[in-house]
Amino acid sequence: MPLQRSVAPILCVQPSRALVDEKFTVLVKNLPPGGPFTVRSLHLSEDNDYWEAYGHYVSNHQGELSVWDDLSFGGTYTGREPMGLLSSMRPIPGSRPGLRLRKKDVTTPMLVTISVYCGHEDYRDQTPLASVLTERWHMAPGVQRFPLQENTVRGTLFIPPGPGPFPGILDMWGGGGGLLEYRAALLASHGYVCLALEYFKPGEMTSANQEFSYFETAFNVIKDHPQVKTDRVGILGLSLGSAVTLNLATESSVVEPRCIVCVKRYACIPPPLSAFGSTPIGCYWFLLVVFDPRFPVKHDENNCEIWREMILPLLKDSSRKVKVEKLRCPMLCISGCDDQNWPAVESVDDVMETLRAVGKDHLLTRADYPDAGHLIEPPFTPHFRATNFIRGSTMEKVVMLWGGQTKPHSEAQEDSWRKILSFLQHNLYGNDHARSRL
User: Fold this and answer.
1) Quick check: 245 and 236 in contact, CB under 8 A?
2) Average pLDDT, whole number, for the chain?
3) Does 10-137 carry CATH code 3.40.47.10?
4) Which residue ranges does the record assign to the Acyl-CoA thioester hydrolase/bile acid-CoA amino acid N-acetyltransferase domain (predicted)?
């Protein structure tokens, strides 16, 4: 459709520079009334892969369209999706399979170009009517980043701006391994000294040799930092990291977190906990389930690995469960009801039943999200139903099915992040004034 207007369209994105968990508005003016238009986002990842999202809109009688208010009639998202241009991002056609978008260098922004095109078809072949480059940051102005120099712990420490002291958080990711900083940087942007901890390299899940004391040392690195309030340190873990989190909170005589947040894997299945204090975490994971020949890995029709059904029977084995009755601090559990990697809802049901039996169910706060998958991350992160995953000491690459549907999963990420920040503020700041935005 040729654009029969002498006035050039105006594309407004506000704010064009923001933290990744902040919303933006996208408004296009000076369009022909009642015309079809496509609004697209485009991002070149640090792995040199292009990611996009787009919605098909119809301008109103004033010649305007608003991604915040108007309905998308097709594209990577439909209906009213104010942040669909980020949350529904996917690799462009022809990209490598199994990709996952993760920020590696948190000192630089995620650059996203928002553009508007005529029509709903073949927009990729067109020159955009207007474009705006936006910056999405994980680090707020003034947040400091310090790679740890200590030989005993590998990670990165983030400190908010200001005089402090601040509450602290130990941040642990899951079975993919490596050092991931983007959530810790974002938490520091909300007023917490945060340590992003690395406890094994990618592909070293079964050969890593980190003992329980490694995590206790990491916790004390935060607790003893001069910018941290000693008695206000929490732990946040996702997937395998949440299993370690729960073990620390129940079994350690050294670690006393003020609160913990577990996203996904709760009542993990370690070896007998009487020996856990001296058992390398790699052996603990090896015995967990993945390489146990009694529980062969299942696959879906696309040959994606499904661990959920393999793990369910083990939840009935009391000898393999964490003794959650020892929990001494508030705990927030985040679960996706379509998690295909781990029986998360069933696990937290078991945790709740155990805590109720000993009169500690008041310590547990849970949030279960229908049609959300395993990888519940900070808001507006794209949904990844299945991605590449390296497992085993052989560095074998598989495709892991995480589950979830894009719209409900995106809603779960946004809502759970609000709940996490509220939970942390209540338990770590208490009556103090927490800076929700720096």
Assistant:
1) yes
2) 88
3) no
4) 21-150
